[in-house]
Specification:
Layout: H1 7-17, E1 24-29, H2 38-49, E2 53-59, E3 68-71, E4 74-79, H3 87-112, E5 117-121, H4 128-138, E6 141-146, H5 150-158, H6 163-178, E7 181-184, H7 187-194, E8 204-206, E9 231-236, H8 245-258, E10 263-268, H9 274-283, E11 290-294, H10 298-307, E12 310-313, H11 319-323, H12 327-334, E13 339-342, H13 345-351, E14 355-358, H14 363-374, H15 377-395, H16 401-416
Parallel strand pairs: 1-2, 1-5, 2-4, 5-6, 6-7, 7-8, 9-10, 9-12, 10-11, 12-13, 13-14
Antiparallel strand pairs: 3-4
Helix pairs in contact: 5-6, 8-14, 12-15
Region (Disordered): 417-436
InterPro entries: Glyco_trans_4-like_N
Protein name: Glycosyltransferase involved in cell wall biosynthesis
């Protein structure tokens, strides 16, 4: 690697300098278990290496059923949740259960180990309700780790605004107001923190969800994923209503049935829309051309990504997806895969020359661009090289560590100085070791 050095080198340096020595951190996550949630897992390991004691509260999930375990020094407390929510009643049930469990476990962790900082990772924008009592009565610091823009997410899911959209806006505003420091996943989210959130620039830090290249493993292509076909298109992500999988299936129909091309589509991930998407696949006559793996372990995920000729991101062009950085894009780039996606601001910023950009929500244009790459292996190789180089030199997790530590130094200094001290200059919290 160049620039930041490897992630393991930086963590080793953190263990030497221990800029967060003596700190006790509680991280709240509602939608994914750890260590499955890669972003929060990278954050947890980084904070631990910097000297902090880290506890995490998160839901259970397939393969992550234990209510408590310690992994690599991270204390993970898991709680059950209702099945994947659909509709307002389902979300109300899920979020109510989550808040109860999160508060219950937070009280337990405070008794057993204590914590001086809470980092809440949305969605939903309700977790500030868990943090506030500890902030008010115990002086606990509160950091908001902004993963999703929920008003835009609500509109993308339900196609309307109204009362619940206004509630999302209000909850977002309350979360920003409660937070002393905000961690944003990209520059678009940072602008939201500065404008809608009213945060001061020195209190908002961009920490991207970069992959840890040392944890990803390229594997020999496995022909089983191709199902005997000449070419393979890969997708990794949630099987939800707003992820645009229906658009991908329409593009697949044109590729396979209208244009008669010999292509297998392999879709990795689970989610609430899985049954409907499988039914749509059958209705389109594509059941033999589309493989749904469900939520897959890393070995299976790495095998799919290593085997694909082209990878896709079919997220619809809407305000939510335009401003959000999708982890799948960075993972595709880490595996040196050429990408096809619809043209969105943050997707283009991440991938740049590693991707082709179809016209907004135009499935025929997406189909054409997928085929143009399948038919041009040299271009695919060059795009894959561009993407991998971009990860190695700018977007991997190694380049996010400094900003994460700086956010924690800032919240500590704000409390110590009554919120008046300037943010630390970039590089003052931890300097990466020389590149190797």
């Amino acid at each position: 690697m160049t620039g930041a050095g490897s992630a393991s080198d930086i963590l080793a340096r953190l263990r030497e300098t221990r800029p967060l020595a003596g700190r006790k951190v509680l991280i709240l996550v509602e939608n994914l278990p750890l260590p499955f949630d890669r972003r929060v897992w990278h954050e947890s390991l980084t904070l631990h290496a910097a000297g902090a004691e880290v506890s995490v509260i998160c839901p259970t999930g397939k393969g992550y059923e234990r209510p408590y375990e310690e992994i690599e020094g991270i204390h993970i407390h898991r709680h059950p949740l209702p099945l994947d929510a659909r509709g307002a009643a389902g979300y109300l049930l899920e979020y109510s259960a989550a808040l109860w469990h999160q508060m219950r476990l937070a009280l337990r962790i405070r008794r057993e180990r204590g914590f001086d900082t809470i980092q809440a990772c949305n969605p939903p924008d309700l977790l500030f309700l868990v943090a506030l009592p500890f902030k008010w009565f115990h002086g606990t610091r509160f950091i908001f780790d902004h993963h999703d823009i929920n008003p835009e997410l609500y509109e993308a899911k339900f196609g309307k605004r109204g009362f619940f959209w206004k509630l999302m806006v209000w909850l977002e505003r309350r979360t920003f107001r409660a937070a002393q420091v905000v961690i944003s996943t990209n520059q678009s989210y940072r602008q939201i923190a500065l404008t809608r959130g009213g945060k001061a620039p020195e209190d908002v830090f961009v920490v991207r969800s970069g992959p840890n290249l040392e944890k990803l493993r390229l594997m020999p292509p496995d022909p089983k994923w191709r199902n005997g076909r000449a070419h393979m298109v890969g997708y990794v992500g949630v099987m939800g209503d707003q992820e645009g999988i229906d658009l991908l299936l329409e593009a697949a129909r044109e590729i396979v049935l209208d244009r008669g091309r010999d292509v297998q589509f392999v879709l990795v991930g689970g989610g609430p829309a899985m049954a409907e998407l499988k039914q749509m696949t059958a209705d389109l006559g594509l059941s033999d051309h589309v493989t749904f793996t469900g939520r897959a372990p890393d070995e299976e995920l790495f095998s799919v990504l290593s085997s694909a000729d082209v990878c896709v991101n079919p997220d619809r062009v809407n305000p939510m997806n335009d401003k959000s950085t999708m982890n799948k894009i960075l993972e595709y780039m880490a595996f040196s895969k050429p990408i096809v996606q619809f043209d969105v601001t943050e997707g283009r910023y991440s991938a740049q020359g590693a991707s082709l950009y179809a016209r907004p929500n135009d499935t025929s244009d997406m189909a054409g661009r997928i085929l143009s790459l399948i038919d041009d292996p040299e271009r695919c190789a060059e795009m894959g090289r561009i993407g991998r180089e971009r990860i190695e030199t700018e977007l991997s997790w190694a380049f996010q560590v400094e900003a994460l530590i700086a956010a924690y130094v800032r919240v500590m200094e704000k409390q110590a100085q009554g919120g008046t001290r300037a943010a630390p200059r970039p590089g003052s919290a931890v300097r990466p070791p020389p590149a190797r």
